[in-house]
Amino acid sequence: EPSVLQYLKLFLLLVLVGVTATRVPHQDLPVSLGTLSLDGHFSFHDLSAAARDFGNLSSFMPAAVLHPGSVDDIVKIVRHVFLMGERSMLTVAARGHGHSLRGQSQAARGIVIKMESLQSVRMQVHSGTSPYVDASGGELWINVLHETLKYGLAPKSWTDYLHLTIGGTLSNAGVSGQAFRHGPQISNVNELDIVTGRGDIITCSPEQNSDLFHAVLGGLGQFGIITRARIALDRAPKMDRHPEQLEIIVQPTGSLWASHFESDGIVLFCLEMAKNYNPEEAENMEQEVKNILTQLRYIPGSLFHTDVTYIEFLDRVHSSEVKLRAKGMWEVPHPWLNLLIPRSSIHKFAREVFGKILKDSSSGPILLYPVTKLRWDNRTSVVVPDEEVFYLVAFLSSALSSSGPHSIEGTLSLNKRILEYSDKASIRAKQYLPNYNSKQEWKAHYEARWETFQRRKNAYDPFAILAPGQRIFQKAS
Ligand code: FAD
Question: Which key words tag this protein in UniProt (predicted)?
Answer without folding.
Answer: FAD, Flavoprotein, Glycoprotein, Oxidoreductase, Signal
